[in-house]
Amino acid sequence: MSLPTPSNPPLPRFKTDWELALTAGLVLAAVAAGAYHCGYLATPVVDDAAISIAYGHSFFEGAGLRVTPHSQPVEGFSNPLWTLLLGLSQPLGLAPDTYAHSLGIILGLLALPLFALWGPVSARRRPRLEDVAAPWVAATSPIYMTWISSGMETGLQALLLATAGVLLLRELRTGRGASAGLALALLCLTRPEGLLYLLGAGLLWLTHRTLERRWTGRQALGIACWLLVLVGGWYAVRWAYFADLFPNTYYAKRFWKLDGSKYLKDYLHLSLPLVQLALAGAALGLMGGVASARSAALGALFLAAGGFFAWRSGDWMREWRFIAPLVPLLGVCMASGLSGVRARAAALTTRGERWRWPARIGVGAVGVAALWLGLPALREATLRAPRIKASPELPFQYVASHYVGVKRLAAELGQLRPLVAAPDLGGQAMVLREAELVDVAGLGDYAIAHHSGNPQALSDYLLSEGPPFLLDSHGPSHYLARLPGLMPNFRHIGGTEWQLIGLSATEDPRCPGGKSAALAPDREALTRLLEQDIRDGEAERGLKRWRCVLTYKPSSELPSPVERERLADLATERGEALEADEQRMPALRLYSLATLLDEGNAHRRRRTELLRAQVFPPPPGI
């Protein structure tokens, strides 16, 4: 064992402990500052978050993944894991908005210490002062704190990004373990862009193993198994239940004019100093040795993946919700750069006394640059907080308060399961739990999304399978006024709401032969009448009959699920025969009736809308 020389004395233990204690204190202070920031902003749960709450409640009520128990099974959400977590408020008996708000904050704040561990885990060292960059960048960001407080999945996404990074960096260094596959799989189930993060992680994995010339087949297989079971399993469930491999939101947003490039440019304009510092940090980290290069590369790849998604998709919401979970990664890149400089400085000092002061000057210069670039950016971000607080995103409670009146109106008309066509799905779904909802914005309705831009098909769908007792034509549903033949069936009742003409407490134009006559048959007689409608080729009469009894009769007086499925199969069989005989319109009506009788079965719905698109071809260019 060699003794220490006077020119190179050992580092006293108390100095290392002092830095560790200060680092831990600063990380905890960042978490506390983030909690205070959330409390100051007091962000309400937004309407889009209430969509996930509504789906989750339906699931735990035993109705499956439907926005309300009586609505059709449509994937009107893009965050399955978060939807299930929010749904737990139903069996737990917790206030759903308070639960969503609190859970998002807790998960978003838990992510901050994990982001600070990327550097230590990659290098197998103690946390150091530079590692506090990620927690503090996030804690002072009103964008990050707004969205983890909003009831959206941002907090969960940030936590899984942080966890995936810690596990992946550790497993790259050690060559053991496959837990990163679990974190990455859960990330894919949290947001659609999770697949892009998976691609970035895979690129780092392959590059690292190639440079090391070390292939850990068993470890890679373990990671792949997690992904296959969870992500592949969800795709199998998605096809079986929703009859599609993409969420319905994908089709609904096809024609939305969202400028993704402007969305990203506006954020870069606001946070350019922070982004510049992160880029410089990533470059310095890549040159600072294997450990800092790993964390810098992963941070940069995750930033690129999330930035690409934001650029491609854009968003109608303010404050960059798609970028919010990426904010801590800016700090990760800064920290990796400082770690890289520190590693290079340590290497220089080992060359002799004459390198000691240049190395220290280099570290100091990096620190000064960080302050020079970082403080103005953090100051600008802090100044945004009062503006965000004063003008929050659309709260779901505001939307819900409006639909209290709609619920009262339906009750006055004696409707047990009203059919409502309106946008702002979250708030209305939380109030109209007994209704069947047609999301005219398309996010939660298969037919509206797939026939977007095809007014003939949209009008036929709304009239033949309804019509709804109430239409709301504001915001994204303003196109309803341009649908042929639709609006003459409705009368204006105030604001942007329209009620079906002829509807009263005693009459409903959707009931064949009058409301009293249509509701008179008992369960068995009703089953026979529906079967007769199908066999006589009177599917339009059957659709009206079913809409009438579904609206006013309790479940105990409707045909049993077994009988309904039998009738749906019969209608499908008759429709197939008519379609083969080129009688597409009668076949379409039979397919529609089969779909509604079978509780909106997604595979029947898919077939129905494919035929509707043939009967009413979309305009050129759609």
UniProtKB/TrEMBL annotation:
Regions crossing the membrane: 99-120, 155-172, 220-246, 267-287, 293-311, 323-341, 361-378
Protein name in UniProt: Glycosyltransferase RgtA/B/C/D-like domain-containing protein
Organism: Myxococcus llanfairpwllgwyngyllgogerychwyrndrobwllllantysiliogogogochensis
Transmembrane helix is among the record's keywords: yes
Keyword Disulfide bond included in the entry's annotation: no
Keywords noted in UniProt: Membrane, Transmembrane, Transmembrane helix
Domain of life of the organism encoding this protein: Bacteria
